[in-house]
Amino acid sequence: MSRTLLSIACHEYATAAILYLAFLVRQWRFFAVAGRILIGTGLLIHAVALGSALAGQGGMPVGLAQGLSAVAFLLLAIFFVLDLRYRIPVMGAFIGPAAVAVLIPALLMSTSGEPMPSGFRRPLLPVHITIALIGIAAFAVATGVALMYLLMERQMKGKHFGVLFSRLPSLTFLDQLNKQLVLWGFVALSVTLVTGAFFSSSTDGLFWKWEPKEIATLVAWIIFAVLLNARFFAGWQGRRVAVLTMAGFCVLLVSFLSSYDPSRHLGVFR
Amino acid sequence: MDWLCIGLSHKTAPLDVREKMALSPEKIADVLQRVSNSVGETMVVSTCNRVEFYALARSTEKARGELHSVLSSLGGDNSLQHLYEHDGDSALVHLFRVAASLDSMVVGEAQILGQVKDALELAQRVGAAGPELVRTCAAAFASAKRIRSETEIGRAAVSMASAAIELATKVFGSLEGRAALLVGAGEMGELAARHLRSARASPIFVTNRTRERAEQLASEIGGQVREFNELHAALTVADLVVCSTASSSYIFTKEIVFPILRARKHRPLFMVDLAVPRDIAPDLSELDGVYAYDVDDIQRVVADNSAARAAEAAKAETIIAEEIARFVRSRSIRDGIPVLAQLRARADQIAKAEAERTLANLGADLSEKQRRTVQAMAQAIINKLLHEPTARLRELRPDEDANRLADAAAQLFGLDSGASPPADNPRPPRGELKTAGSGGSKR
Q: What is the DSSP string of B50-111?
């Protein structure tokens, strides 16, 4: 059943994404409002689908399919909240298609079958994974915002005042939003690192095993730490920060994907 | 006499060409004095977006050559490729459109009408503008005013200044609490200041080469005066800079601004240059976090005119067509005033006849120069005598009063559309005698 629900949600998201793209071209309020409604109801359905799937797993997404599904959910949830708060439907044209692109592979992958390995039933694990996914989603949205910033800046610097120029929010707003999202993402990433280390020590007795995902996560953490420091203490902002955000997210993506074990058929969070 | 308009504007010439062509009033006066003798009635409209010669040319060919040589001497040979030309009634239409702000960079902006008025005033002052040019401009101004009151074009239109402020919101979002620096407190600076204040930018620093003007503007808008030599310190604090000085060299260059960026802690800096020639070096926007724009850039911002404004512009075009038609009609009536023509012809005949008679009486022992002096004197008396009545008849609008006065003149001078020429000269005057027309003497 959850698969059907997920598919419905995915269709709603895809429709919303098209509406938001249409909004980019022609600024009719209808597109924005319809997109918002579709995302809202899609999120509800998606929540039911995810909830029913995770209920039997201690509230923890298992496998790449559920991981992707959860990321798509969080991505759109963050966008939905931001849109309600700041009214930035234009962002839907960036986040919407990205979320659909993340969700489609989740739908195509088989999610049934294999039980969770026994060693994974630890109280800390659901917290670790959930926070890690929230962090990824926050950085993904921050990257979307950074992309919007770079596009907007290119329009402003190149003095080509096209469609994007009139639709995108101001540079300062995008920069501030990036700051908020990176800050929250950084907190989540830090918690993920710490809880991950504790979980690792409780299963293998080692805090740090030099696994690719650990290294990638640490590198991403350092990038974001440098970024936030530069922002708060050296007054960095704008393009440099946007580029660094994107770079950090790319490293984080490596970390996310390497968290799944390719040797298993399903892929499970290790 | 035919209308000729030659010039260049933001539509045909890039900023660096217009910059070279930006003429001071003194320069314009000088040019006008030089060309008006050979070309005919002339005026020059020179704003930051256009330099245009309007001439009521005796010979279009000659005037074109003359104006081309003047323009190329001002802006170099390259400037000729940016010129456009209107002649005849199309020049008239162009003048009406320019005055009505339909040809402006920001369609509907109000400044251009004043600028054309200034242009006419200057031309009158140096004696380059004659009655026909004045009359035509008056009609153009009237049509511009009608457009302003009958269409919404002025309301939709933003000045360059407000378009610039709008652009700033694309960097900062709200301008509330953003520090602004005005460099130059002229008309454009004042406009910008008002927009800044209504966008609630604060504080607003005003700097100007002459301090009094800066103080005056600052007190009007609740700003603070900064000395012109404190410019760099003010730049450290400001988020927005609006330049509109008459300086002929750059005030802000990369070398000046770059060191300040560090002191600003890399906060974004928005700079807009409403001056021509420019105050801000064009390469400034290469600096990270600096967003610098000149008048051409601002034009591109406002280029995406709303449909509403386009509709208003269409209405305005209709009004222009009506006003032109009316003007042309009244001009042809005026031109055709047979009373004037007859009067002139009669007077010329008398002058000639009397001169001949005097010369005959004096005998044959006069030199050629003496003969010509006598003829010139007769002609001069006639001209002086007829100048006032001719001017008054010409100035009249074609209405009842004009007809009455024309009739009176015809009676006084014994002219009648049906009357034959005086007996002592049976030849009809050279084609000038027109049969009485609608506006002429009717009895």
A: EEEEEEEESSHHHHHHHHHHHHHHHH-GGGGGG-EEEETHHHHHHHHHHHTTSSSSSTT-SH
